[in-house]
Structure formats: C-alpha cells, structure tokens
Write a structure and sequence with these properties.
- By secondary structure, the chain is α/β, with parallel strands linked by helices.
- It has 2 domains: 58-171 and 292-317, Rossmann fold, CATH 3.40.50; 175-289 and 325-346, Rossmann fold.
- Helix content is 54%, strand content 18%.
- The protein has a 7-stranded mixed beta sheet with strand order 7-6-8-9-10-12-13, with helices on both faces. A 6-stranded parallel beta sheet has the order 2-1-3-4-5-11, sandwiched between helices.
- Strand 12, helix 13 and strand 13 (345-346) form a beta-alpha-beta unit.
- Helix 6 crosses helix 7, helix 8 (229-242) runs parallel beside helix 10 and helix 10 crosses helix 11 (277-283).
- The longest helix has 56 residues, at 2-57.
C-alpha cells in the first residue's frame, strides 16, 4: 500500500515538471518570435531612415550650356543658379560652359555633360537646346531664352508641353505689341527693315510674326538676314539705305554685335526697335522687354521640382515671363532727337 502511494506521488511530480518545462519552452518561443518581429521593424525603419538621409545628402550636378555671352543670356543663367542655390545651398554644383556662339561647341559641351552623368542640363538659348536634345533622351533638359519650343524642336501639334525629357521657359515678348510700339513712336514710317540671323530658327519665327503685324497695318517691310556676325555690317549698311526704321528681334547673334550695329545706324540717324533690353541698350531706341533674370529664376524653380519633388518634365508646360515693360535707351534717343512717349521706362 505504501509502495502504491509512493509511486503515485512520483508520477504526479513528474507530470508537473513536464508541464512546467513545456510552459517555459512556449514562453521562450513566443519571446523569440516577438524579438524577431521587432528586429524586422527596426531594420525597416533603419532602411527608410538611411534612404531619407541619402536623399538629403545628395549633391545635384547641373550642366549649363550657354550659347554665347551677352547680357540677356548671362542674366538668365544667373537667375537659374540663384534659384537652385537658394533652395539647395551647397547641395548643388554647376558645370557652366559657354559655346561662344558656335553650334558645334554646344554639341561638344552637351555630349560631355551626358558622358559625365549630370543630373540635369540647362540649355540657354535655342542652339544650346537643340544640341542638348540631340545628346540625350533621358537626362532632364530645361531650356531658357528660347523663343518658341515647337520651332526649335521641329514639333507639330504643339500643346504647351513637349512630351519628352524637355521643358523650360520662353523669352517671347508679345510681337504684336512690339509692332504697336514701333508705330506709336514712328507713325510716319514708310518701310521697316527686319534684321536677324538666318541661322537662328526662332529669329525667323519672330521676323515672320512682326512682318505680318506690319502688313496688317499697311506698313511696308523688308527682311534682311545675316548668316553670322561677319555679315552683319554689310546687311545693316544695306538696310539703312532702304528703310527708315529697323526692327531687331530677340537674336543671339545680333545681341553679341550691338556695337557694330550702333556704329552704323546712329550716324545714319536710323532708329532700331529691339526685341529685348540687352539689344536695346546696345543699339536701340526702345523695346518691349521681359526680364531674363526672372525667366532664368523660374527655370531654376522648375529644376528643383524635377530633381527634388519628382515632377514629370514631359508634362511640364513651357512657361513665359509674367510681365513685359516698355523701355527706352535715353542716350541714343537723345542723340537721334527722339522723345519717348509717356509710360516708357529708361534703361538703367
């Protein structure tokens, strides 16, 4: 009897030890699983934090191709750089190169940007935009100081956005208002000479629009085109013998040769209405002009949206200057005996 009681006690004790061991094992497994989940969560959080830190630490490399050096394009480039520097501080670098008016140099510069893997290309002027477009279909390209993107890129059915890796800002001022300015200042004009560089597609575009506006007012006009800076002197000298007022649209070749133009037109007493302020300050009497610094700055803001905010450049519409201003060149007006109408601002 005593043996039976002892056996029962031992059996009960063994069962209790087994239950305790199982409970301990279950608890340990649960703790291990919980620890594993916590590790995964911590790992995910650390990865996300690392990615955020990588983005915030990234330095963006921007390639700038400027067709030629003159006041208008210089101002656009400066505005672009100022906008990005204000937003990114030392997290942006610029490889700024000037093509000295040569389209072949634009091609070399843009090809170099692609090879070096820049994050974005700023193409300042039409020739630079065309070279950049030919060099890459993947790196974002923003143009500025480009009059008409459809003309520059040979695009039909223009909708305002390119549908490609290209967008930017336009320097087109209202051509019809520029024509009205000419008529306002010279109501007795007999024939207007329109002078531009034949190598710049957007200059021809402006010349055509200006001619149409003159024709609508019954004013005779004639186009004079120079292939490059070497022909400007001859072309302008011919124009002043046949016309009593000249119009020079936004044209980079002409903008880089204003001193040459001035030395011909001023002694001859022939006034020039200019498409932008830089040309006017060099050889013109008046202009209806935009701010090139402002469109450059806007382009910089667009670049930030593309690089940092992930904006789709293919759907970004080309933007225009919000304001235009009537300005006059006081020195040349005085020399030619011309009084600017009210509402005109002297070029500083």
């Amino acid at each position: 009897m005593k043996l039976k009681k002892l056996y029962a006690a031992l059996t009960a004790a063994a069962m209790m030890l087994t239950a305790t061991a199982c409970a301990s094992s279950t608890t340990s497994s649960s703790d291990a699983a919980s620890g594993s989940d916590s590790s995964v969560a911590d790992s995910t959080a650390n990865t996300a934090e690392a990615e955020n830190n990588t983005d915030s630490d990234k330095t963006y490399n921007i390639g700038i191709c400027q067709l030629v050096q003159h006041d208008a394009l210089d101002a656009a480039t400066q505005g672009f750089k100022d906008a990005l520097t204000e937003k990114l501080g030392d997290k942006v670098t610029f490889d700024e190169q000037n093509a000295n008016g040569e389209s072949t140099n634009c091609t070399t510069i843009c090809t170099g940007f692609v090879a070096s893997g820049v994050d974005l290309i700023l193409a300042n002027a039409t020739g630079a935009l065309q070279a950049a477009a030919a060099s890459t279909s993947t790196i974002p390209i923003l143009g500025t100081s480009v009059t008409d993107y459809a003309t520059a890129l040979s695009m039909d059915n223009w909708t305002g956005a390119t549908g490609t890796n290209i967008s930017g800002t336009s320097d087109l001022a209202p051509i019809d208002e520029q024509e009205k300015m000419l008529v306002e200042m010279f109501p007795d004009v007999k024939q207007v000479g329109i002078i531009y560089c034949s190598a710049e597609a957007n200059s021809k575009y402006q010349a055509t629009l200006f001619g149409e506006a003159l024709a609508a007012d019954g004013i005779a006009y004639k186009e004079y085109s120079a292939a490059d800076t070497n022909e400007i002197s001859t072309v302008v000298s011919t124009a002043i013998t046949e016309c009593d007022v000249l119009y020079v649209p936004t044209d980079n070749t002409m903008a880089s040769s204003t001193e040459t133009i001035k030395n011909i037109v001023v002694p001859a007493g022939i006034p020039v209405i200019a498409g932008e302020e830089g040309i006017c300050s060099g050889c013109g009497v008046a202009t209806l002009s935009i701010s090139y610094y402002d469109i450059g700055y806007t382009t910089g803001e667009m670049a930030y949206d593309v690089l940092v905010n992930g904006a789709d450049i293919s759907t970004m519409e080309v933007r225009f200057a919000p304001n235009v201003t009537k300005k006059y060149n006081a020195a040349i007006c005085e020399e030619l005996g011309i009084t600017a109408p009210e509402g005109y601002e002297a070029i500083g």
